[in-house]
Every structure is written in C-alpha cells, then in structure tokens.
Write a structure and sequence with these properties.
Layout: H1 8-18, H2 32-37, H3 48-59, E1 69-70, H4 83-89, H5 107-124, E2 128-129, H6 136-151, E3 155-159, H7 164-174, E4 180-184, E5 201-207, H8 218-227, E6 231-236, E7 255-259, E8 275-279, E9 292-296, E10 302-306, H9 329-367, E11 371-372, E12 384-385, H10 389-398, E13 401-402
Parallel strand pairs: 1-13, 3-4, 3-5, 5-6, 6-7
Antiparallel strand pairs: 2-8, 7-8, 9-10, 11-12
Helix pairs in contact: 4-9, 5-9, 6-7
C-alpha cells in the first residue's frame, strides 16, 4: 500500500507545472552511473502486522534500562520519571520543534524558560542562568569561553577529575583561539589538588562531584583561583547531587554549569540532553545563548521577553558571546516540570535515597573483598577495582546487569 499523500493526478499536475515529463526526469541531472548505484535493494513489502513484529524483534535486540539493572553512570543517569512529566510536556502547546527558534512570539514558552532559569539559579546558588544549552559538555566549554572573555586571559586549568568527554569538547572549542590548557592532578583520595600557583589563569574548571564520583573541595579551589585572578567554574554531570551538597555559588564558584538530563529527561540511547549554565550577576552580559527576562506591558500586565541575547543573529558576529543560537526548549521544559513536581523537599529525599543506596553498595562490595579506589566522600558514584572485569563483562550482561564504565580507556 502506498502512503505517498499525492494522487496520480496531483503528481502529473505538479510535473506539468515545472515542465517535467516524469518523476525520473527530475533526476536527469544526476549521472546515470550514480543513479544506477543508488538503486535500493529492498526485500518484498510486508503487511502491517508483519512489519510491526519485525520492528519489535529489532528493538528486542537492545538491552534497555527497563530490562537490566544499570550501573553505568558517568554522565548519563536513569532515574524514574513520573508520568505527569510526559503528560504535560506532550501537550500541544509545548510539543513543537525540539528547540524554539522564535520563542519571542510565545508568552507560554518564554514563561516556561523563565521558570527553568529561576530553578537553575536556586539549584546552583548563583544570580542568573541562561535558557539552557545543548548538553553538559557544551555548557562547560561555553563557560570556559565566558571566562576568557571576562578575564581577557588565555590560560585554562582543567581538573583531572573533569569528565574526559567534557575536557575533549573544551579542547575542541579552544582549538585555534591561542588558549593554553593545563591539567590539575588528583590526589590519592580522588580530589583535585591546586598544585603550583595558577599563573595568568582565566579559569579553573572542576567537576562537582567529579568524574570518579568524589566530592571536590570547591571552596578551596575557588580561593586558589581567585588569588590568581581566575574564575572558578563548577560543572556537574549529576545535578541531583546539588540537592544535598552546598550549591557551587555558596562555595565561591563564579560559574556553575553541567548536564540536566537526570531531571526528567530519559537516557534515550545517549540523547538528547540539556545543558545548564548559571553565573554571578556581574557576568550576565557574558552569558551565551538566550536569556529570558520578566517585564510589564503598556497596561501593567506581567510579561516575558528575550533580553541580552547577544547571538550572531542579533548583533555583529564578531561581538556575539557565542554561536549558540537557541536552547534545548523541550528538554528544558521537562526539567522544569520535573523539578516543580518534586519540589525542594522531594528532590532532597530522592538525593538521600541515592546516597543511601550508594553507601549500601559500597559496603557490600567491600564485604565481598573488592577495593574501593578513592577515600574521598562520594555521592552516588564511586570507583571499584574488579579483577578480571573485562573477561567477565559479557557474562555479567547476560545476567541482566549493566556494569559501570570501564575506566582503563581514561587512564
């Protein structure tokens, strides 16, 4: 059965209008040799029931987190998502393009983003947040660019505890900008050591908690960075930790960024996700992407507007704070619904449950004779040494367990 939405008469009318004799004639500009190679060798068509069964058999080959006990972590987290998040986010008022290019025309969209920004400020303890970014890695890289602009320096210190993918994206962003990147080592306990004086530093970037799950001494690192005239950037891959830990802003961080995926956004085979970025008020004009503000109209009614959106579409390209031209609208909306639904108390209870289960797992692993690599406090991730794990990995999967990330590749 054909699902082409045009009848034969309609197709013929369109061909006559453009002066073509057939659909094949539209492709005559492509060499015949290439057209011959482009022939699709498809199997015979299937009926609807058979096709659905075939697609279901393909889907069954995936090990979804609903069918296994997952311990993967390392930047992507499987938390229970209340059904109401899907119900509200899928309403016709919201279910538009994944990223609204013309948010200015919709007060509802602007208000949702404003609420998201407010929640991010509350979570991070900072003054202002933007309308979201693509993911935690790009948010971290954008925070580094912000620091370069604000300090007019070119040297950046990255903690060894920063997620390797985040560090790689930062290096990609800075390639060609004549920026210097230095690495701060980790101590035996798994936390970052300031090391030598941070000369000519624009930024010190630390993950909180870090890639290995350790809770970093953000306050001490902020003091070291500020003594050198640098900004302290705190990035967080699992923001649920901030429901228990002191907010980065209270610890001296100038910028807090990271990944918001665990707040109501499913893992979805790695994406899409949502990056957040908040900063102190003095840095507001350096924020990349969109910023939504509250105002009143001519009749005194509350309203929302895009403000300080120094994107390349709005001002001269060389003066733009970023080439980030939009925000993760639908994903940020899910984060907003999720956080509003749980509230301050519910989010803390969820974080406490994660911490308790993590401590329980630690104790059981130690009892089983396995070594915990770091002694620093952790939230819900930690490094454990498992002899022969590479050889046993497939067998563990077959038993319905998804082990944690293999760290050998990141040594």
């Amino acid at each position: 059965m054909s699902y082409v939405p045009h009848t034969s008469d309609e197709i013929q009318l369109m061909l006559e209008h453009v002066g073509a004799t057939s659909i094949e004639a539209l492709f005559e500009a492509v060499p015949a040799s290439l057209r011959a190679r482009a022939e699709l060798k498809l199997p015979p068509t299937l009926g609807e029931r058979s096709l659905l069964e075939y697609l279901q058999s393909l889907a069954a080959r995936n090990r979804s987190l609903a069918r296994v006990s997952g311990f993967l972590g390392a930047g992507s987290y499987h938390h229970f998502i209340p059904t109401v998040v899907d119900a509200i986010a899928s309403r016709s008022e919201f279910a538009t393009a994944y990223t609204p290019y013309q948010a200015e025309v919709s007060q509802g969209t602007l208000q949702a983003i404003f609420e998201y920004q407010t929640l991010m400020c509350q979570l991070t303890g900072l003054d202002v947040a933007n309308a979201s970014l693509y993911d935690g890695a790009s948010a971290t890289a954008e925070a580094v660019l912000l620091a370069l602009r604000a300090t007019r320096r070119r040297r950046v210190y990255l903690s060894r505890g920063l997620h390797p993918h985040y560090a790689q994206v930062v290096r990609t962003y800075l390639h060609g900008l004549e920026a210097e990147i230095e690495e701060l080592p980790l101590g035996e306990d798994g936390r970052t050591k300031p090391g030598a004086p941070l000369e000519d530093a624009a930024a010190v970037v630390v993950q909180y908690p870090n890639f290995f799950g350790c809770v970093e001494p953000v306050e001490r690192l902020a003091e070291a960075g500020h003594e050198a005239g640098a900004l302290l950037i705190s990035t967080t891959a699992e923001p649920l930790a901030l429901a228990l830990l002191r907010p980065p802003g209270e610890l001296g961080a100038d910028v807090a960024c990271g990944e918001g995926q665990s707040f109501g956004v499913p893992v979805s085979f790695g994406g899409p996700s949502v990056g957040f970025l908040a900063a102190r008020g003095k840095l507001v004009r350096q924020l990349p992407g969109r910023l939504i503000g509250e105002t009143v109209d001519a009749q005194g009614r509350r309203g929302f507007v895009m403000t300080l959106t120094t994107r390349e579409q709005h001002i001269r390209r060389e003066r733009a704070t970023s080439n980030i031209c939009t925000n993760q609208g639908l994903c940020a909306l899910r984060v907003t619904i999720y956080l509003a639904l749980l509230g301050r108390r519910g989010l803390r209870e969820l974080a406490e449950a994660n911490l308790a289960l993590s401590c329980y797992a630690k104790q059981r692993l130690k009892t089983a004779g396995l070594r915990l690599v770091h002694s620093a406090p952790t939230f819900n991730e930690f490094v454990v040494e498992v002899p022969g794990i590479a050889e046993r990995y497939s067998a563990i999967l077959e038993r319905g367990l998804l082990p944690g990330v293999m760290l050998e590749a990141y040594d």
